[in-house]
Amino acid sequence: MEGRDTDRAGVGGTVADVGEFGLIREVTGRQQVPKGTVVGPGDDAAVVEAPDGRVVITTDVLVQGVHFRLDWSSPEQVGHKAAAVNLADVAAMGARPTSLVVGFACPADTDAAVATAVSDGMSAEAARAGAGIVGGDVVQADQLVISVTAIGDLGGREPVTRSGARPGHIVAVCGRLGWAAAGLAVLGRGFRSPVGVVNAQRAPEPPYEAGLVAADAGATSMIDVSDGLLADLQHLAESSDVGIDIASESLEVDRKLVDVAGALGADPMHWVLTGGEDHALVATFPSFTDLPQGWRQIGTVLMPDTGVTVDGKPYDGETGWEHWR
Ligand SMILES: Nc1ncnc2c1ncn2[C@@H]1O[C@H](COP(=O)(O)OP(=O)(O)OP(=O)(O)O)[C@@H](O)[C@H]1O
Ligand SMILES: Cc1ncc(C[n+]2csc(CCOP(=O)(O)O)c2C)c(N)n1
Ligand SMILES: [Mg+2]
Ligand SMILES: [Mg+2]
Ligand SMILES: [Mg+2]
């Protein structure tokens, strides 16, 4: 196969065989983490030492047909989403986003106005988080690809990683769950309404400020929900070496989700538990914490042997999005 070098492959099969998270383990296992790295690969963002402080840095790539479709979303909404998913990773470290660097790839026949509208959408969402675009690159490609690197400022705080949860802590969430998944289901069936869930899929609105607030309130770990609540809690549970139980009765299922699910013959609780792309923030706090405004308790941290459960039982079904699956 083109480009395949069996001597160097180190791992057999295709990336689909290895899996998204297996591939991350493979590539990070071969990398040397440089001196001055405070938080290396494995969290929502890295934290590196700079001469005058610590910098939070993270990248997410969005690919046409995988993360968005131009017949589903306006170019501005695509740009908004590309910025939001990265800004949310900075917020999930308890940091304030400051700047974005943008890689933009598209075919030769793309309208220039599409490219500028994507950029405008990114700038507008960055501004909502207090950040702006400071550089980038534009190149030719077979489809639209947007790669964003976001930089954040901890303002002297310690980063809130995925690894600080301990048994007895409470699990809390801020932001929407299941809305973008409902929107995806609607769009996937060729509908364009209700616009509330559809716009949640097109242009998510993560609660950036809540990341800083959680850090100041003593959050012990945090992650943003990109792949699905249960899938992302699994990452947090593995990093912290704990178990987590979610109480389904504490998860509010908005009337809108119930209505959309009814119309599509879907289960709204499945969207809430496993839907990604709303970029809600999930954090753990010591049990005595008065949760900050907007945060609600949804579960508890347990000993590691139980894994991630819902009402004490393992979840029956996919827990979230995984590339190549
Ligand atoms: N090619 C890579 N090389 C080094 N580290 C990587 C690579 N790909 C991913 N990682 C690291 O693996 C960890 C998990 O990545 P992942 O993309 O799942 O996190 P995320 O960006 O928070 O989630 P999502 O992409 O679903 O929004 C991150 O710390 C990321 O930096
Ligand atoms: C056209 C189209 N098809 C499917 C989806 C669903 N989807 C794509 S990536 C992802 C998880 C987050 O991505 P990542 O892990 O890369 O951050 C999800 C839920 C979509 N948004 N658009
Ligand atoms: Mg993340
Ligand atoms: Mg990522
Ligand atoms: Mg993901």
From TrEMBL:
Mg(2+) 5 binds at D227. GO terms for biological process: thiamine biosynthetic process; thiamine diphosphate biosynthetic process. Mg(2+) 3 binds at D44, D89, D224. The keyword DNA repair does not apply. Mg(2+) 2 binds at D60, D89. Substrate binds at H67, E277, W321. CDD domains: ThiL. Mg(2+) 1 binds at T59, D60, D137. ATP binds at G136, D137, R162, S226. Pathway: Cofactor biosynthesis; thiamine diphosphate biosynthesis; thiamine diphosphate from thiamine phosphate: step 1/1. Mg(2+) 4 binds at D44, T58, D89. Residues 42-152 form the PurM-like N-terminal domain. It comes from the Bacteria. GO terms for molecular function: ATP binding; magnesium ion binding; thiamine-phosphate kinase activity. Belongs to the thiamine-monophosphate kinase family. Catalyzes the ATP-dependent phosphorylation of thiamine-monophosphate (TMP) to form thiamine-pyrophosphate (TPP), the active form of vitamin B1. NCBIfam families: PRK05731.1-4, thiL. Reaction mechanism of ThiL seems to utilize a direct, inline transfer of the gamma-phosphate of ATP to TMP rather than a phosphorylated enzyme intermediate. This is Thiamine-monophosphate kinase.
